[in-house]
Amino acid sequence: MLQFSFASFIHAVRPEHLSKIVRHRSKRMILDSIGVGLVGSTTHVFDIALKYCLLYSSVAVSNVYGKPGVKLSPTLAAFTNGVATHSMDFDDTWHPATHPSGAVLPALLAASQMLPPNSKPNGLDFLLAFNVGLEVQGRLMHFSTEAHNIPKRFHPPSVVGTMGSAAATAKLLSLSMTQCTHALGIAASLAGAPMANAATQAKPLHIGNATRLGFEAALLAARGMEANPFILDDISGCSGFSAFYSIYQPRPLSTSSECHEFLLEKQDIAFKRFPAHLGMHWVVDAALSVRNLFINYAGSFSPSLIRTIVLKIPVSKYINRPFPNSEHEARHSFQFNACTALLDGEVGLSSFTEGSIHRQELRELLHKVVVEHPEDNVANFDKMYGEVAVLLKSGDVLTGKCDTFYGHWRKPLSRESLLKKFRSNASHVLPEEKVETIITMVDNLENLSDSSHLACSL
Amino acid sequence: MWAKTITGNFASVIHGLNTNHLTDVVIQRSKRMILDTLGVGLLGTSTEVCQKVKQYSKIYSSDISSTIWGHLDFRLPPLYAAFVNGVAVHSMDFDDTWHPATHPSGAVLPAVMALSEAFSQKKKISGLDLLLAFNVGIEVQGRLLRFSSEARNIPKRFHPPTVVGTMGSAAACAKLLALNKMKCKNTLAIAASYAGAPLANAATQTKPLHIGNAAKHGLEAACLASQGLQGNNQILDMESGIGAFYTDYNPQILPTLQSYPWLLDQQDVAIKRFPAHLGTHWVADAASSVRRKLVKNSDNLLLLDKIEKVIVKVPEVKYVNRPSPNSEHEARHSFQFVACSALLDGSMSIQSFASENIHRPALQELLCKTQLEHPSDNKPSFESLYCEVTVVLQDGNTISDRCDTFYGHWRKPLTKEDLEEKFQSNASEVLPPEAIEGIIETVYNLEKVEDCSVLNMFLSGQSARVLPEKLHFEHSNS
Fold first, then answer.
1. Which of A367, B174, B181, B319 is deepest in the core (most CB within 10 A)?
2. How far apart are CA B352 and CA B355, in angstroms?
3. Which coarse location class describes where this protein primarily resides (chain B) (predicted)?
4. Which residue of B has its CA nearest to A61?
5. Smallest Cα–Cα separation from A111: which of A130, A124, A95?
6. Which residues in chain A have Cβ-Cβ distances shorter than 8 Å to B235?
């Protein structure tokens, strides 16, 4: 019985089971996620979410990213911080594809502040709960071969993220095995948002809701709510979790209590270098190398010399946008990101402002772009590549190809790069001392005696 | 510009429908639905699942507050009031069912009622406003259900209230909030990202949350849209939008507003006579009638040991096929249980699902002799299914009866008296008689009520004597 094995794992896993690699990788994820959430607190979508949640702020014990004076009730703090984390599509991505940290961290931060003073989880408990949340997401994605490719129907964070959040909070709150089982069952009824809201302002809600609703599921289970204990099994004629997939082959987790190999051990995460869909990172790196060739060739980058720009990308409708109109669309546009990289030599936060999106030279360049979908370019974050070919009016062709961008799990960001990203993000809303405090706290997470200090420092 | 997409068209209609569009039939039918839903919800407040969600929701008390049906002692923010009341409505599977299949009222009424209280200082919501918003919410659900042929049958994958119910609640709240067309569109877009729960939690304690969440999330979507949040404005058009919940999806634009043809006009709902899955209502009627025949032949005594086999012919619906249910939730989703229960007692009631009745030996014994058959002509659709119950006696005789349309089905609707009796019986578990009378009268005259907050006051248990000035109907010179 699957749910039993999942609940058993969630309930019985201990900090000792975390290997060094897993600790190291997950702390990097926590740091990046916080930074991304902090910069995300400056977005419009965040404003809306916060204003909405402030209506319900009575038992306000949980901090909100970037707003030191403001507290919300725990699940709404989780919601708001989740929205912040995904507001710019700057958060981490895993394989199979999902954004794992944003679905888990906000709930844990909020929950840590909810628990009474004499039972605060320490840093190691926190790290463990975080990893439980990741692990459950990863294991669930392995139940379907569909999950290996870039999604088409349901947005993965809204499917597995909700389950991961339920598992993580169940762990942090020390729910019994039965309660863990039911938390997963209840969470399944809160999972699943369609892809069509990707590339819109509503997309960040997917992570916000995943982390919040998974948390709610755990809270309801803690109060005795019961659900179907076979929700993860494949029951014909009456779908459970399988409802979200057309192919579904579930497997139990290993129940060995001595050791558990976390998926994070074998499969690292990708961190983004700029706030856009992961697929963009390949074309940007390819475009940057073409731009360098161009500068060597012609002394400077001159768009007027260009006849056509050919992008060789995998097939994925929601990131193929020739003329994006909003920041959300721009973050989901191969064409936009390639052209920005060619024009500016880099892609960053400011690339997605209204002014940048609509500038004349960029629009002109966009008109020269054509896309091709080579058969060998699979819509899969482990296998895809990005190729940019600039055909000049002179007849010359400059090409660049990127198989593995810097930040991908095959070429992980160095510690310096990761800290640079964090500092750049966090300093948008926090003073330097606080920024450094967070870095130190996360670095030493295993030694923190009260993990709610992390939430308080936001 | 707006009607070029289905989504835009829906937003346009939600925005453009007004009280003049409501027909007499629609008004009458929807008031019946409102009354039934309130009663069912009031009764449901006493269930265990409702106790749990009430406890949970109390985390979120704040200044803005709405009524929790049956409670004078505490209030909750509109979002959680909608949630809790929604859970109450579906807690016993006693709420209305439509064709194509969903539970339409429970997803909408709690949300609009909770929302109506959030305005109170700023403006009055009249009964007619409430009635209109309610019907917009029902209509949107019905229209969405017609976009997929899958929806015509009893579901297998996603529980329909969680798909269309969330959208209906969102539309109804957008209407009540008087959002502009753009915001109506965004309401729908945002709501889609909350829609969809798998069927497997049916027949468990979590199922009532499906309706609670549909109401709550639809309301939230409307509130977020009202604050300016935007989503995909082709959410109803795209396969990766609402289409994600169906394997075949063919959206259509709505009719023009000119004498708008409401679905409720053409297709009524079924109101349940006892708290269990609709499919079991056919079984109960057939089994009760078989029992009448049986006892007639033996001096009004049901001779259990003379029964060899009980054969129940129903369509194939896996989640209602439970040979030996263990909990009330399972019992409410068991053809076998209802057949045996009705054979034993002659009729079904709320009490049939009490723990001691579920586990009584006579019933367990009869269950062991019961089997289901699925004739190929018995389609899993609430429009066309039938039930045949056959009792095979030890002496070889068989007694059979068949039910094509149970009393309460849209083809044989409950009379006004019986609808009221159901409401009285339900509401009297938690409200005093004056409040009960107040609700009945207010709902019956809903289109004339100037300020629908009176309804909420009765629902919290306050009686008419306390608020004479509130019972002010327009055109009171009738």
1. B174
2. 9
3. mitochondrion
4. B59
5. A130
6. 194, 196-197
